[in-house]
């Protein structure tokens, strides 16, 4: 018979991998088994079986694992309602890769508007394998390859807990690292281009900063939807990546006269849309690169900039902020549909840049902010 584990109130629950995670129980009971299951996913971290001999003294776990476990428990412990939902609708994922997004460095530094409760484990874009599912989860089963657009416990970890409706099947066409490069980059790019920028086939778009996670996603999506795509990068290697991923033309944003080259390429007409990754540097110049009624979509910004509002009047152009965090459920579904269609059709192929072991996350955070030249999505490998 399966091993049984004492619950917090002295009740005994089953903790075998088959039934504790899948069975229908009352919320309180479920939580205990869910926790036990989560704990059991780490060797030496689970509870003991009352019938078993006392366990031998265990070596202390490496820090990342202890932290992941604590984060998972914290996520599960917020309120009993949340715990109940998680237990029924949550999944536990063995993380194989987690994308690094610049916003995680802003949040970690404490200078960002959103300040998470502590302890905090960053990371939303996980790819991995389902380890267990809540009682009401039917879309996934243990062993499925998946990627996420959010986690409840944090993705910079060996295991992560996520709500099932933020988890998607990972096509066999894509590696785990590619799976970890999908959610924030492609959802943001789609949102900027279509939900906020109202891009149409035949229009021209300048992806200002096209060599990183969001930029490459924007190049691939814009090309697939019939736009004329111009992209910039700061290195030769980055420009080649941009050209290989849908851009009709690439420019080097570290070259003194690259803005003139862009205008020449458009026959002095300018572009309909700019997807801007560094607006604190480029916004004033962007207004001169737009065509009549053009729009700048502010995706990335790391500080203030002075612009002349008159430059918007000349062309009746507009500047619009983009925030993925404000997406509605309907918008989210549209993004998901577009992304899954793109993977299925084969045009959506995330480009993985530097990969770091989880232990080197501090270096990854340094490098993404002080990049010497992006060439794809930065990924952590636990
Ligand atoms: N608004 C939202 O909801 C949202 C969502 C996701 C991301 N973001 C933001 O969008 C930005 C890009 O994110 P990411 O994940 O793509 O980051 P990333 O992978 O680090 O890429 C950064 C990009 O910015 C480019 N860049 C550097 N200097 C530039 C310049 N002077 N002009 C134009 N581009 C320049 C880089 O090009 P080189 O390295 O080749 O020079 C690279 O292509 C970040 O600021 C991020 O915080 C916003």
Description:
The protein has 382 residues and is α/β, with parallel strands linked by helices. The chain has two domains: 4-179, Quinone Oxidoreductase, Chain A, domain 1; 183-326, NAD(P)-binding Rossmann-like Domain (Rossmann fold, 3-Layer(aba) Sandwich). It contains 13 helices and 15 strands. Strands 3, 4, 5, 6, 7, 14 and 15 form a seven-stranded mixed sheet that branches. Strands 10-9-8-11-12-13 form a six-stranded parallel sheet, with helices on both faces. Strands 1-2 form a two-stranded antiparallel ribbon. Helix 7 (213-224) links the parallel strand 8 and strand 9. The longest helix has 17 residues, at 329-345. The two termini are 33 Å apart. Bound molecules: NADP nicotinamide-adenine-dinucleotide phosphate. NADP nicotinamide-adenine-dinucleotide phosphate binds at residues 101-103, 184-185, 188, 208-215, 232-235, 238, 253, 277-278, 281-282, 299-300, 322-324, 368, 371, 373-374. Residues 101-103, 184-185, 188, 208-215, 232-235, 238, 253, 277-278, 281-282, 299-300, 322-324, 368, 371, 373-374 line the site of NADP nicotinamide-adenine-dinucleotide phosphate.
Features:
binds NADP nicotinamide-adenine-dinucleotide phosphate; 7-stranded mixed β-sheet; Quinone Oxidoreductase, Chain A, domain 1; disordered N terminus; alpha/beta; 13 helices
